[in-house]
Amino acid sequence: MIQQAIENILDRYSVDPSDKERLTELALKILTLTKEDHSPSELRDLVIELALENARSNV
Amino acid sequence: MPWKTLEVTFSNIGGIRGPHSLRFTQGTRYLTGPSWAGKTSSIKAVRAGIFGGDPKDLKSLITKGEDQASIITMVEKDGEQIKIERKIGKIKRKWSHLVSLSRLVNGKWKTELTDKESSSADPQILKALDIAGKAPESLFKDPLDPLYVELAGLANYIRSLSPHISLEVVGDCKKAVSKSSGLVEQRVHSLKDLQSQEKALEDANHLISEYEKLLGEGGIPTSVKELPDLESMLSLHEEMQGKEKTKAQLNQDTNKLLSEIQARESGVPLPKLEELNKRHEELVKDKEEIAKSQQIETERVKEEFEAKIKELENSCESQIEKLEAEFTQKIEAKQKEISEVEGKIEAQKATRPLDDIKAEKTSKETEIKTLKKQIGETGAKLKDKLKKYPTLTIEKIVDSKERVSGLRSAVQTEDETERRRQELCVELGIDKYSEKELKVAQKATDWLSTLKDVFSELPAELDVAERKRMVGLINTRLKSLLKTLGSDLDVNVDEEYAMEARKVEELDLEDLSLGERGVVGASIDMSLGDQPTIFFDDAVMLDKARCNEIGKELSRNVRPVVFTWRESTPFNQTFVLKPEHTIKDYLKTIVGISKEDKTVKVTWEGNTFEAPENEVKTCLSIVSKLTEFRDEDLLAHGVNPNTGMVSLGILVSKTFVEAVSDDGRHFKVLKKIDPTAILSSISGKK
Question: Backbone phi, then psi, for B525, in 5-degree steps?
């Protein structure tokens, strides 16, 4: 349900198809992270790490 | 091989000061007490007793205001008793976690480890229990393993049914992504800053070498402060040049004026203006008269010829035309003469009187004198400046004009630029600026800002149909789960309960670690052993009858099932007001507040709570900033449970706050709270 919602939203943003898949993946990863026990600052760091990691493999 | 936890005795854990024991016997058990009594802490202590754990988590278990906590766990393994003792906290001024292990052999305790640091002791403990290398959850390889997973999964489902979040998680993500996005943007800024600092440094180095070249050997001063101010030399030089140019222009103007004066003095005088004006009038008059006679002549000829129109039709027009042409020519000739005279008049007007020209010449000459003086002064200043640097000439400076600009400031700010550059490198965790890093950070910013938008568009609430579907799903799963355990028990999760779930996002997540968030329904934990104890922490969702049923089912006469339940707080007492009482009077009679040796005590219907005065003050300051709060909000702010009870007692009895819900857990602040004034108003006696 969530994945579909994310994809729909990204479609509305006319995100590039190659980026769409990665962004969806990233969003889901972040959603999963919050289910684990992370402190807010840990979570922020993880989100940054994920985004940078994704950008690195994409630059 | 089989083992089980028999008893856990702990001291200074969570809200529980002093030693307390939990004995584990089969069947359904309840841990009840008001908020902050230490129910959840007890469960955490049970796990920590066997596994130890992360030092940060363990530290947070210690009762506020205490330095040390202890957990003693008694385990039965292969018919033999093992005792694990942990001391956590400040031991000899140092943060330590010491572990001891002993075995009961022939009725006597035989010590195997004494106060050994947990890092080296814990592996031996796990080895003694035969569970080395296993995480708590991975221990349940019996039929309970899937049960645990299912129950934990269900707890998560129930959690997600809170009306405000489907996805309570989405709320967290929004915050995390939004903050991360800010931080990554900051990274981009820092990288750009680094780029410009490195560029500036490069420029400075380049300029410095130019500078040195410019000054030549022997002329280079040793300290930056002694550097010649090339900029001001250059500007003096430019100022001088500018003035020279103005002077030259003035000279030229003066010469022109002089030649005009000479020409005018020796030349023919111009005709008088009055004569010209008179002649102009005459000519205009002539022109008008000719125009008048043209009209008369035309009419006369017209009349004369009208009679002979028929015969002379053809010649008439040509005659008129001839006449017209004749007169036009005459008018034009006159107009030409008029224009000529007019031109002369204008020329006469435009010619300035000779005296004016002479005056202007004199003033220009004065100006030239002033300029000469100024040029001399500026030149002297420049010479003075140059005097200090024998090898430096104005020609050299002018040659390097392009490079002189900004050169001095580059030399002076070089150190500052280098310091900033290094700072940025440390902040960014890189050695030097890299184009790729900037691209990555920019890309990550794009990603995060898109993600931020995506999360902000995700639904904040589940729609009714979806919620119902999920409740249905949970009930089906719960039933099938119990069926596999051989039970036909009906344990419907009530939709209403889920709806009333605590709105956890009202709490400031900055103050809470995610692991401590309120759990909707119950969170499920396990104690340890081959027949693990199942804990339902904070089983607010289920009523006692259901707890009994579930407990009976899950314990199956071999294992303990423990539910923790919150009892109501003392703040939901029904007020019985007699006509002569005000609420204030009534509260004063039931609450006793006293202070002794910096400790504040509050007695409430037989319950006494006490807390250090400074902690109470801190708690009152926290409340003073709120307009409304729940008792768990205080806990979230790190307030010790006892301190919370004492503070609430004071605030309620002095009508600073009032309970707004029947359970006495939700309060509204009625008036401004001044912690110092409140505490000083408490007398030393009861």
Answer: -135, 170
